[in-house]
UniProtKB/TrEMBL annotation:
Protein's name according to its UniProt entry: Glutamine--fructose-6-phosphate aminotransferase [isomerizing]
Reaction it catalyzes: D-fructose 6-phosphate + L-glutamine = D-glucosamine 6-phosphate + L-glutamate
Organism in which the protein naturally occurs: Myceligenerans salitolerans
EC number: 2.6.1.16
Keywords, comma-separated and alphabetical: Aminotransferase, Glutamine amidotransferase, Repeat, Transferase
Length: 367
């Protein structure tokens, strides 16, 4: 790994490496292995109130918004409650209908992002209930919410968010578990997910340990002017987060797309000059995703495939990055880590100051 002028690693690098410990802290004291559930006392909601929730609406900006999309997927899958995420920066301007049966969730690392804060205030002004998923204790968003879950990721100072994103995912998994277990999620499924969550820190460690092997692939991406990040359903927000990270610190154009939508337009852009980073978890959509990747390869598009150990890519010409298997609902977290590493190494290759990307501030607190 490259060192800065002072010999120290960039903060982004250190924060990426802290993820096993951060995730462990997010989980600490909140899992109930006996009943396969989570206890989130900070929400201030009893089982009856949790059961009364008809919808979940998640609001955040940038990477927090993408983590929110991952969270919405988790909540729908585990709790079978309709859930979606929206950019708080859009929500606050569109005079949204505030529904008393919806649980609003504001997600933010800093707890100071003005768009998210003003969305929270508007919801509460109209009688809605908002809980926070926030890292910084006592921050403005944390104070403005009715209750919440602290991420306990530890201080994050690099502009490019890493450990906050993965701990947000874990926070949403805890919320989904608790919402699920007051509804129809079985104790067996609850226990399966609790065990999966407990495996995560070790598995993140494993992916990070292979980080050096990604420098070659990162160099290929750094050499391209433009690229795609593609995924389907659980993989799509991961692709958005991967593209965002790469844009922020390498200044390369990266566009995230749903794998299912490629044939409806962007396939026209595929060429040997435009690489695609694809998420291919070994889930119920793997065959369809593999077929879409063949479409890209057939047009000469270079492929980087982030997949699970043991997945057979057949004849597909691709650089392959394997992550360990966990429960499929938790796949987004482990798929996210190699994308952070790729963005980091691409930026370092290009000689950029990873911790001080141009035009960006750590938190956007003014309008
Ligand atoms: C992440 O890499 C970004 N720098 C940015 O999108 C960030 O996630 C966003 O501004 C939200 O910040 P917050 O989590 O502090 O609210």
């Amino acid at each position: 790994y490259e060192h800065g002028a002072t010999g120290a690693h960039p903060r982004m690098y250190t924060e990426m490496l802290e993820q096993p410990a951060s995730v462990e802290r997010t989980l600490r004291g909140r899992l109930d292995e006996r009943f396969g559930t989570a206890h989130l006392g900070g929400l201030g909601m009893d089982p009856r109130e949790l059961r009364a929730v008809q919808r979940v609406k998640i609001l955040g900006c940038g990477s927090a918004y993408y983590a929110g999309q991952m969270g919405a997927q988790l909540i729908e899958e585990l709790a079978r409650v309709p859930a979606d995420a929206e950019a708080a920066s859009e929500f606050r301007y569109r005079d949204a209908v505030i529904d008393p049966d919806t649980l609003y969730v504001a997600v933010s690392q800093s707890g100071e992002t003005v768009d998210t804060l003003l969305a929270v205030e508007e919801i509460r002004r109209k009688g809605g209930r908002v809980v926070g998923l926030v890292n910084v204790v006592g921050s403005a968003i944390a104070r403005a919410c009715d209750g919440g879950i602290y991420l306990h990721a530890g201080p994050e100072t690099a502009v490019a968010s890493t450990k906050a994103v993965t701990t947000m995912f874990v926070g949403f998994a805890l919320l989904a578990l608790q919402l699920g277990r007051v509804r129809d999620l079985s104790v067996a499924d609850g226990k399966r997910l609790v065990a999966g969550l407990l495996r995560l820190p070790g598995q993140i460690e494993q992916v990070l340990a292979g980080g050096d092997r990604l420098t070659g692939v990162a160099k290929t991406l750094a050499a391209a002017e433009s690229m795609f990040f593609v995924g389907r359903v659980r993989g799509y927000p991961v692709a958005r987060e991967g593209a965002q990270k790469l844009k922020e610190i390498s200044y390369r154009h990266a566009e995230a797309y749903q794998m299912s939508e490629l044939k409806h337009g962007p396939l026209a852009l595929i060429s040997p000059a435009v690489p695609t980073v694809a998420l291919l978890p070994d889930d119920e959509l793997a065959d369809r995703n593999l077929a879409a990747l063949h479409e890209i390869a057939a047009r000469g598009g270079p492929l980087v495939v982030v997949t699970h150990e043991g997945v057979d890519l057949g004849e597909l010409a691709a650089e392959r990055i394997d992550v360990p298997r966990n429960e499929k609902e938790l796949d987004p977290l482990l798929l996210t880590i190699p994308l952070q590493l790729l963005a980091y190494h691409a930026a370092v290759t290009l000689g950029h100051d990873v911790d001080r990307p141009r035009n960006l501030a750590k938190s956007v607190t003014v309008e």
